[in-house]
Design a protein that fits this description.
Elements: E1 17-19, H1 25-33, H2 37-40, H3 49-64, H4 70-91, H5 109-112, H6 121-140, H7 145-159, E2 169-171, H8 172-175, H9 178-181
Antiparallel strand pairs: 1-2
Helix pairs in contact: 3-4, 4-6, 4-7, 6-7
C-alpha cells in the first residue's frame, strides 16, 4: 500500500565510500560571488601561529594534571590536537553563516580552503603540523610500541583526509549520505 501521503524511502547503495558530486554552475557562481569567510581566515596573519600556541597550551595542560606521566601527556596532546583538527577541517560540512544560499553546504572546511586547490602554502603547513607533532610525541614517548601505535593511528586519521585522493570522498558510516540527512530538500 503506497499512497501519496507516505514518502517512499530511497534505496541506497551498500558502499561505505562515495564521491561527493561536483557543484552545479549555479553553486559555483554562488561560491564565487562572495568571499568565504569561513575558510579564508586560515590565510590571515597569525592563523598559523594559533596551531603552535594550541599545541603548547595542550601540552602544558596535560603536563600539570597530577598523575599523568610525560609519555601519556604527549600522547594526549597528540590525540586532542588530531581529534580537534579532524573535527574542524574534515567532519563539519557547510558554513555557520547564512549569506551564500547554501553554496558550500556539501563541502567541509578543507575542501573550501583556497577554493579547493591542493598543495597551497596553507595546506602544506596544515599537513606538516600533525606530522611534526607525531614525530615529537613519538620521540618523547621513547618509541614505546603502544604509544607509537596510538599516535600513528591518530596521524593516519588526520593525514588521509587531507590527501588529494580523499578530496570530496565521504565515508558513509561516519557521516551518512547527504540525501539521508536532508530528506526535505529532494
Amino acid at each position: 500500500m503506497n499512497d501519496g501521503s507516505k514518502k517512499s524511502r530511497r534505496r541506497r547503495s551498500s558502499s561505505l565510500l562515495y564521491q561527493e558530486p561536483q557543484e552545479s554552475m549555479e553553486h559555483l557562481n554562488d561560491q564565487a560571488a562572495i568571499p568565504n569567510i569561513n575558510a579564508n581566515w586560515v590565510n590571515a596573519k597569525g592563523a598559523w601561529v594559533i596551531h603552535i600556541v594550541l599545541i603548547i597550551a595542550l601540552k602544558i595542560l596535560f603536563s600539570i594534571i597530577p598523575g599523568i606521566e610525560r609519555d601519556t601527556s604527549w600522547t594526549l596532546t597528540n590525540l586532542t590536537y588530531m581529534f580537534g583538527s579532524y573535527l574542524m577541517f574534515h567532519w563539519v560540512r557547510g558554513i555557520p553563516f547564512e549569506f551564500n544560499a547554501g553554496a558550500f553546504d556539501n563541502l567541509n572546511m578543507w575542501e573550501q580552503m583556497d577554493n579547493g586547490d591542493q598543495f597551497t602554502p596553507t595546506k602544506k603547513f596544515l599537513l606538516s603540523v600533525p606530522i611534526c607533532l607525531f614525530l615529537a610525541s613519538t620521540h618523547y614517548t621513547r618509541y614505546d610500541l603502544t604509544y607509537f601505535t596510538i599516535n600513528t593511528l591518530a596521524l593516519l586519521g588526520v593525514i588521509v583526509p587531507k590527501l588529494p585522493v580523499s578530496h570530496r570522498l565521504r565515508v558513509s558510516f561516519l557521516s551518512g549520505h547527504p540525501d539521508d540527512r536532508y530528506p526535505d530538500e529532494r
